[in-house]
Amino acid sequence: MAGSGPSGARRVDDPPEVRDALPTHPEPVVRLNRAVNLADVREAARRRLPRPVFDTIDGGADDELTLTRNETAFRDLLVTPRPLVDVTTRSMRTEVLGQPVALPVLLAPTGGARVAHRHAELAVAAAAASRHTVYVQGTVTSWSLEDVAAAGGGSSWYQLYLPADRSRTAAMVDRVVAAGYRALVLTVDTAVFGGRERDRRNGTALPVRIRPRLALQGAGRPAWAVDFVRGAVQLPGPLSGSRGLSVRATQEQILASPSPVTWADLASVRALWPGPLVVKGVLGPEQVQRLLDEGVDGVVVSNHGGRQLDGVPATIEALPAVVDAVAGRAEVFLDGGVRRGTDVLKALALGARAVMIGRPYLFGLAAGGQAGVEKVLDVLGTELDRAMALSGCATVADVDAGLVRRVGR
Ligand SMILES: Cc1cc2nc3c(=O)[nH]c(=O)nc-3n(C[C@H](O)[C@H](O)[C@H](O)COP(=O)(O)O)c2cc1C
User: Fold this and answer.
1) HSE value, Cβ hemisphere, 13 Å, CA-based, for 173
2) Which end of the chain, C or N, has fewer beta carbons within 10 A?
3) 119 included as an active-site residue
4) Does the pTM exceed 0.85?
5) Confidence (pLDDT) at 249
6) Counting runs of H as helices and runs of E as strands, what totals does the chain give?
7) What is the predicted pLDDT for the residue at 112?
């Protein structure tokens, strides 16, 4: 499934029986190639996806206040460059939980990537590996966690949603260990699902199934529809290869009833998982001391991309207080609303070790599969490199709090 491309990077492709089974439809590579920024990539995806599918990725909770704020809050931060520094030689390299990465942009866990492209998590993991960064594979997946681990070449992390039946947690964690994931990310902001009103209006729920309305809208999006059907032909093999624990059953349980994560759960996961443990979904300093006491190695300042509780702060607003409370005793990551290299620069300046992106790479995936995800990483990398050069930073270590200040709205 994932082979070696001409450059040595892994490339995800269909097995021959799937490749030959259906006519190939040209993918909108031209549009993707012309994309100069992430807004263009989003637009390429919007043109390819049926409206309900686009909305299920693009949308947020309730009035989408937090979704909007995640992006606008970055604009309220201004950068003060430091000229007269020799930035001829630059590097975006850094380490996340001891793992070297080529740039401080990681790919956040997103359930349901399969609605964007049939290669879904395999393509995302392979793209992250080819760009020497990290993909956080989610529990909600269309490919087995072993196949995704292989596509990521041993560089991926795993995001855990706990099964409602906690007696199955240990088997799940064992499987993640055996597959070779480097870090475990426990998401704690989904006690119940957020109110996704676009999805309710569209009658969409994850996992997306072909229903009459979707089939109708899919007819206007033939490239997507063919891809979706090809995926359906292709899927049964890898998904059913559930090696001792049913991925599908676990997911259906999770999707049917998300299960609140408690401090007791955190302690038991910590005891089960031997590697670095990250908690995703922290927005304030109050829980930080206890998280550190429980042995957490990293936190992700995240509001789930504005998809859970609406009205919470933008993550870039919440970041400084969390960084202060952590005080260097763990690594702090941020996701939500990162759309520009300058956003990455601002997050690093305020103390994030690295950022994660969600929607942007899903749009890249929708517009061009693995190449689309790579394009998104390349665009952000190019922008960050330029922003570092123009602000007088040769390395990420040079990016510090003195670079940014907040302006009033
Ligand atoms: C379609 C979609 C599915 C997601 N699924 C998950 C998930 O299964 N687990 C999780 O921890 N976060 C999930 N997230 C949240 C992302 O990990 C991340 O926090 C968010 O997308 C970051 O915001 P951004 O999309 O503005 O970059 C999902 C986000 C989207 C857009």
Assistant:
1) 22
2) C
3) no
4) yes
5) 55
6) 18, 14
7) 85
68 to 153, 284, 315, 357, 380: CA distances (angstroms): 35, 19, 11, 15, 20
Q: In testing the pocket of ligand 1, which one of 159, 199, 304, 310 has its CB within 8 Å of the most ligand atoms?
A: 304
Q: Pairing between strand 331-335 and 354-357?
A: parallel
Domain ranges of the chain: 2-406
For ligand 1, the distance from its centroid to the CA atom of residue 244, given in whole angstroms, is 27
**CATH architecture of the region 2-406:** Alpha-Beta Barrel (3.20)
Spell out a b/e string for 267-300, using b for 16 or more CB atoms within 10 Å of the CB, else e.
ebbbebbeebbbbbbbbeeebbeebbeeebbbbb
| Separation between Cα atoms, residue 158 and residue 135, nearest integer Å | 8
Ligand 1 pocket check for 338: Cβ under 6 Å: yes
* pLDDT value, residue 201: 94
State which residues of the chain have pLDDT below 70: 1-10, 16-30, 206-207, 233-258, 408-409
Q: Which two tokens stand for residue 92?
A: 């975006």
Fill in the amino acid letter for 203. Answer: G
Q: Tell me, what DSSP letter sits at residue 114?
A: G
User: How far apart are the CA of 40 and the centre of ligand 1, in A?
Assistant: 20
Please enumerate in sequence order all residues whose Cβ is within 8 A of that of 271, keeping only pairs 6 or more positions apart, or say none: none
Q: How far apart are CA 153 and CA 174, in angstroms?
A: 19
Distance CA 217, CA 82 (A): 51
Rounded to whole angstroms, how far apart are CA atoms 199 and 206?
9
Q: Is the CB of 384 under 6 A from ligand 1?
A: no
CA distances from 405 to 78, 79, 186, 327, 335 (A): 5, 7, 32, 20, 20
The predicted pLDDT at position 259 comes to 77
